[in-house]
Amino acid sequence: MILDPLIGGIAMGCIYSLIALGYNMLIRAMNLLHFAQGEVMMVGALAGVTLVSVLHIPYLAAIPLIMALCAALSLGLDTFAYRPVRRRNVPVINLIIATLGVSILLSNAAILIWGAEPIRYPRIYGSDALLLGPVRIPPQFLAPLVVGGLLMVGLQIFFARSLTGVAMRAAAQDPEAARLMGIDIDRMIRYTFAISGAMGGAAGALLGPIIFASFNMGEVIGIKAFVAATLGGLGSMPGAMVGGILFGVIETFGALFISSGYKDALGYAVMIAILLVAPSGLFGRRARA
Amino acid sequence: MLELDSVDVAYGSIQALRSVSLRVSAGELVTLIGANGAGKTTTIRSISGLLRPTAGSIRFEGHPIHRVPPEAIVARGIVQVPEGRRIFPELTVEENLRVGAYLVRDRARVAQGFERVYTLFPRLRERRRQLGSTLSGGEQQMLAVGRALMAGPRLLLLDEPSLGLAPLLVEEVARVVTELKRSGITILLVEQNARLALTLADRGYVLETGRIVLSDTSDRLLANPEVQRSYLGSSRAGR
Ligand SMILES: Nc1ncnc2c1ncn2[C@@H]1O[C@H](COP(=O)(O)OP(=O)(O)OP(=O)(O)O)[C@@H](O)[C@H]1O
Ligand SMILES: [Mg+2]
Predict the structure, then answer these.
(1) What is the chain B residue with the closest CA to A170?
(2) For residues A166 and B180, what is the distance between their CA atoms, to the nearest angstrom?
(3) CB-CB neighbors (< 8 A) of B75 in chain A
(4) Is residue A143 in a domain?
(5) Alpha carbon distance B141, B133 (integer Å)
(6) pLDDT in tens, A99-125
(7) Does residue A146 belong to any structural domain of this protein?
(8) I need a surface site. Which of A233, B95, B105, B193 has the fewest CB within 10 A?
(9) Is B14 in the pocket of ligand 1 (CB under 6 A)?
(10) How far is CA B63 from CA B4, B30, B46, B75, in A?
(11) Rounded mean pLDDT of chain A?
(12) A174 and B50 in contact by Cβ < 8 A?
């Protein structure tokens, strides 16, 4: 059945989308490529294991806790690592290198806390698939589809409807003009970090039960999500969502029709192809400095 | 209401303003004219808190504001319509206006603001769902003014509102500025179009390479031979 891998691909894609949203929000708000985005997701996945296996918190209740934790983590990274660098008015490349340092720091901290061995989530899902007519949704893909989908819709509504969301968009488009409207740019940047952290945390919580959670999962997944963000268009919110889902589907079908051995390589091949055809991605409106 | 006292502003080692002093009283429409690069925008940006004077003081209603950040200056009632409009291109007209009222907490006042702006600029009401980037230059200028009005300013700083507009739209700007003044808003109008500015304003200051070289009532400035030669002649400076 062609529908089964499609469902699986979309589910993985939703997870990539959540991480890609984090990348793109920060790129849009401050031209920052946040290399530690994948590691924030990793902390979410591992913290999820602790919450669910050790503290026996129900999985669905753990997801918002993990999101809050990762929002706080991301905010903390900004406050204690990036803000001091930003204050010096250094070129943005220095800041990007700082995010690389932070990603290594987070991986090492994760080894100290959770060890270097991959950890399996406790059995969360039953084995019965949900049947919707001809569509069969395996239980482990249900949460990414539903929770991921809801989060993305919620985020869209937040940016479209709430005053804070609109102000964040304004601040990203023209920070100085936004200040002239009384918008506190620093605060908008803090919100951006918090939300991108929360999205990363949700991705980790959703991914943990599908693959093993481990200190180095942020690297591979983080790069894939970045490819997804590039595919959709760096800095674009719809681009992150569509790019993530598209990437998940391409990857799954690639593994199916070519070879699962080439699964990871296929993603990059696709990225290179797309960048040759549409260098700014599907939703990239303009090149950004 | 607004007082600049011996303000110096520098960009690195380039001194852009030298000992600029000017005053705007409540209810007045004052203009600041000068050629390209005279320092008009620099003055406006200093008042808004985007630039810090290296010397001198800026006071608003008696309180020093030259160390206050731009966000807090807006909260005090000084709102700027920046040079080049600077509307948010990817927000709709309505969103641009809503963001203008970012600091207004009272919903009823926000609704009144929308009504006021849409009455002043019916065109914006028609275009309210359109993205800012799709507006014409004249409409963008209306939007920039409307967005500033949404904040409920007591002192409005206008930086070259007529720049790049066709003659008919320049007249529209003149109408709006007059109307705003009549509604009780104090205005500091920066213009290269000195004739327009002096026709509208009560008083004017002339800025030349960072210094105030003349200050008088508009009528007398219009009659001043030096002003006529430098700013009102057929070969208008820099244009
Ligand atoms: N960011 C900057 N860095 C360095 N110098 C600047 C900067 N902005 C302005 N200047 C210089 O300061 C002086 C005053 O510029 P300002 O923009 O205030 O002039 P203006 O009167 O508004 O001119 P215009 O009519 O062209 O808008 C000019 O000599 C300009 O070159
Ligand atoms: Mg100027």
Answers:
(1) B88
(2) 27
(3) 182
(4) yes
(5) 12
(6) 999 999 999 999 999 999 999 888 777
(7) yes
(8) B105
(9) yes
(10) 11, 20, 15, 14
(11) 89
(12) no
If interface means Cβ-Cβ distance under 8 Å, which residues of chain A face chain B?
A: 163, 166-167, 169-170, 173-174, 176-184
A120 lies in some domain: no
**B82, B89, B102 ranked by CB distance to A167: nearest:** B102
Among the atoms of ligand 1, which is closest to the Cα of residue B192?
25
What tens digit of pLDDT does each residue of B21-73 get?
999 999 999 999 999 999 999 999 999 999 999 999 999 999 999 999 999 99
The residue among B71, B133, B143 with the most chain A CBs within 10 A of its CB, best to mutate, is B71
pLDDT for B184-196, tens place per residue? 999 999 998 899 9
Number of domains in chain A: 1
* pLDDT(B237) > 60: no
The pTM for the full model equals 0.91
Q: Whose CA is nearest to atom 31 of ligand 1?
A: B37
Provide the H-helix boundaries in chain B: 40-47, 70-76, 93-100, 107-120, 122-126, 137-150, 167-182, 194-200, 218-223, 225-227
Tell me which chain A residue has its CA closest to the CA of residue B90.
A173
B68-122 per-position pLDDT tens digit: 999 999 999 999 999 999 999 999 999 999 999 999 999 999 999 999 999 999 9
Residue A134 placed within a domain: no
Low-confidence residues in chain A, pLDDT < 70: 1, 285-289
Closest CA in chain B for residue A184 = B71
pLDDT digits over B211-225, tens only?
999 999 999 999 988
B12: which 2 tokens?
A: 């690195």
Residue A152 has a pLDDT of 96
Residue B188: which H helix or E strand, with range? strand B186-191
The amino acid occupying position B110 is V
Domain that holds residue A174: 17-115+139-218
Cβ contact, residue pair A169, B88, below 8 Å: yes
Q: What is the pLDDT of residue A285?
A: 59
Angle at B17 between CA B14 and CA B18, to 5 degrees: 105
Indicate if ligand 1 lies below 6 Å from the C-beta of B40. Answer: yes
Bridge partners of residue B34, in order along the sequence: B207
C-alpha neighbours within 13 Å on the C-beta side of residue A229:
27
Tokens 């000068």 -> residue:
B34
